[in-house]
Amino acid sequence: MRPGIAARRISGLRTAGVIQRDRWRLSNALLLSLLVHAALLSITFGGHTFGLPGLGFPWKDRRAEPSDLRILLMPAPPAEPLPVPVSGPEDTGVAGKGDAGPAAATSASASEPEAASSQPQAPGMTAWTRPDVNLPIAPNAPATRAPATSLERNQPVQGSDVPAPDVGGEAAQKQVEQALEQARLELERQSAEALRQAELAAQQREDKRQEQLRQAAARAEQAARNEAARLAAERSELARQETLRREARQQELAKQDEKERAEAARLAIERQALGRQEELRREAARQEQARQDEKARQAQGQLEIARQEAIRQETGRQEALKQEAARQEAAKQEALKQEMAKQNALKQEAARQEAARQDAIRQEIARQETLRQEAARQDALKQEVARQNALKQEAARQEAARQESLRQEAARQEASRQDAMKREAARQEAARQEATRQEAARQEAARQEATRQEAARQEAARQEATKLEAGRQEAGRQEAAKQEAARQVQAKQEQALRDKAEREAQREERLRAIGKQLDAEAAQREAQSRPSRSLLPMASGLRRGWLYGRADPNPDLVLYAEAMSKKIELNMTFDMVRELVKQPHTQPTVTVAIRADGSVEKVTFVVSSGVPAIDEAIRRVVASQAPYGAFPPTVARQYDVIEIRRTWVFDTAIRLQ
User: Fold this and answer.
1) Are residues 337 and 426 in the same domain?
2) Minimum mean pLDDT among 81-90, 97-106, 239-248, 500-509: which range?
3) Do 462 and 370 share a domain, yes or no?
4) Averaged over 584-589, what is the pLDDT?
5) Which one of 12, 386, 562, 599 has the minimum C-beta count within 10 Å?
């Protein structure tokens, strides 16, 4: 799994965990809030406590309905007729004392319901208590009673509106009974009215309490519904946001996967193109070699034909000479000897020419091999030039894009400047119109009053001069701002040119480094194509091997170089160069020569970092990790020293590429 995808998935899991914890906390907070609101809504206000409102809980109220008040009226026992004796004045006090009992009882019985009815009901009570009503009951008449005096007859009964009887005998008794009956009826009526009012008040209080309970329940239900709707909306919003985040994350992952697949496809296409170019180059070299071999064979055949023709001609000539010698045997013996000597000289000359020809053929073959290598190098240079041209075109395209962005920025600034000028012209036009209006007003005022006209004209002239001066200052400020902007643009362009020159220098430096690396890799490939030469001992007597890239026919050599790189990268060696690499530097290319026992022979800089302290720190890092382990048997059988070349990259650690 790729590290970027793993990190994003871990981040997504952490986000999901945080959201789940937030949901759990939100649910607990909501539950606690509902419990607190339910407890608050279950409390009602009621009662009086020292004149202050108290808290009345619903579970303390009586839920049973109060029993109905029933009043049973029983007829009073018949009272015996009281005689009305005639008494003197001396009996007045006694009679008064004797009649005071029933009258006092009647007055007391009549005053008790009035007190009960007139007693104020405590407002705000939650329970209604039945009033204690003492119904008047006629007392039993005594056996003997002193006759009532005229004073008693004229005295009214306390607690009633019935006048006291002023006649004696049975008429007085009837009047007393009627008065008692009226008092009893009045008491009953008052008691019934008090009960009805108490029932109405209790019913009103109960209705009000029920209404309050219904309203509280409705509010609680509405609050619960609102809370539930809010929670549902929040949950849906959280779910929607989570879905959007997941979709965005999936899209981002898909985009990154697509980019990675496109990059892998591009790299594969480039590798295939490079492979095809390498195959084509090898095929061209092979065909060129075949053509050279064919030419050499043809030249050798022609030389052989010429030599045979020369031999044949020589044989014919010798045959003619023999015939001539036979005809002139006797006369030309000395000439024959001279001719044989000459033939020997000719044979020696022919042998020398043959040796020279063979030497020329060998030199031609060597020259053709040199030409082939030169052609391969020229091909590599052409590819490098093509790549450099592509880089130059890319740089030119980027420069054109940058110039276009600068042009657009300049156009935007010019548009802003023109807009500012338009606004300034509009402001000046408005000021001019305002001045014209003021001038018209001034002229109108001048027609009305000459002195005020002169003063207003002078004031207008002063204001106009001030405006002109302000306009000149504003124009000067704008001109200075434009000059400053032009200077900044010029400075930016100069900085861009300097940056471009620096980038060109860096690119040229990189290209030179790449050219050196390509030359080294070409030398390595040439050495690999001729392994017999690399195995020959050098002047020092050591067999040396070179690994300038990451590919080699010997896999153990590649694994050994990777192990050396990992040891340097993973053993916290970056602390030795952490402060030094903060300086501007070039990525150095370093060749490390390692002996068979793992010790370091030498450290060579192909490309220096440009900072001597960093180069020295690299040497210390290489020396601090030595020894690097003995060579594997397959490597030790071939080499005594291995030179491994890597490019050192410093970011958050040391990486060897």
Assistant:
1) yes
2) 97-106
3) yes
4) 89
5) 386
Q: Which domain holds residue 602?
A: 534-656
How far, in Å, CA of 547 to CA of 568, rounded? 17
Shared-domain flag, residues 332 and 481: yes
Q: Between the CA atoms of 24, 30, 33 and 35, what dihedral angle is there, to the nearest 10 degrees?
A: -90
| CA atoms of 331 and 317, how far apart (whole Å) | 19
Q: What is the DSSP letter of 74?
A: -
- Could you tell me if 651 and 574 lie in one domain? yes
Task: Say if residue 562 is in the same domain as residue 648.
Answer: yes
In the beta sheet, which residues pair with residue 53?
A: 48
Confirm if 106 and 44 have CB atoms less than 8 A apart.
no
Tokens of 198: 């108490």
Q: Report the predicted TM-score, pTM, of the whole model to 2 decimal places.
A: 0.24
Identify whether 431 is part of a domain: yes
Rounded to whole angstroms, the Cα distance separating 627 from 560 reads 13
In a shared domain, residues 494 and 560: no
- Pairing mode, strands 544-547 and 641-650: parallel
Mean pLDDT (whole number) for 359-383: 86
Sorted by sequence, the CB contacts under 8 Å of residue 128 that are 6+ apart come out as 66, 198, 199, 201, 202, 205
Residue 460 CB coordination number (10 Å): 15
- Domain presence at residue 398: yes
Domain count of the chain? 2
543 lies in the same domain as 475: no
Question: Is 272 a member of any domain?
Answer: no
- 332-369 confidence digits (pLDDT tens): 778 778 888 888 888 888 888 888 888 888 888 888 88
What whole-number distance in Å separates Cα of residue 601 and Cα of residue 592?
8
Q: Are 82 and 141 contacting, i.e. CB atoms less than 8 angstroms apart? A: yes
- pLDDT on residue 45: 55
| Residue 129 located in a structural domain | no
Q: Which residues pair with 641 in a beta bridge?
A: 544, 595
For residues 430-437, average pLDDT = 86
| Span 261-283, pLDDT tens digits | 888 888 888 888 888 888 888 88
pLDDT at residue 594, as a whole number: 92
Per-residue pLDDT at 124 exceeds 80: no
Of 480, 513, 546, which residue constitutes the final position of a domain? Answer: 513
Q: In this structure, are 547 and 493 located in the same domain?
A: no
Residue 136 has pLDDT above 50, yes or no: no
Round the CA-based radius of gyration of the chain to a whole number and report it.
Answer: 65
Q: What's the pLDDT at 373?
A: 87
Tell me if residue 166 falls in helix, strand or coil: coil
What are the φ and ψ backbone dihedral angles of 594, each rounded to 5 degrees? -115, 135
